[in-house]
Specification:
The chain is mostly beta strands and about 70 residues long. About 0% of the residues lie in helices and about 20% in strands. It has a three-stranded antiparallel beta sheet, with no helix packed on it. The two termini are about 30 Å apart. The structure holds zinc ion.
């Protein structure tokens, strides 16, 4: 199960949450001020394979890792 990082839109608190893959911010609230639907930050887990266009041919423009 991946850990997602969220940021509260109201108070800016960042917190991490263990959620199922593909989970949304639906039902998630800020632990500090209880504001619903925080903004999902990019998690520390890299989602490889799907949607990473640059890595398939040549050098990835994002991470500069050449693929062969
Ligand atoms: Zn908050």
């Amino acid at each position: 199960m991946p850990i997602y990082e969220y940021k509260c839109q109201k108070c800016g608190t960042k917190f991490e949450l263990l959620q199922n893959m593909g989970a949304t911010n639906e039902g998630v609230t800020c632990p500090k001020c209880n504001t619903p639907k925080p903004v999902k930050q990019f998690s520390v887990f890299k989602t490889s394979g799907e949607g990473s266009s640059g890595c398939e041919t040549g050098v990835c423009p994002t991470c500069n890792i050449p693929s062969d």
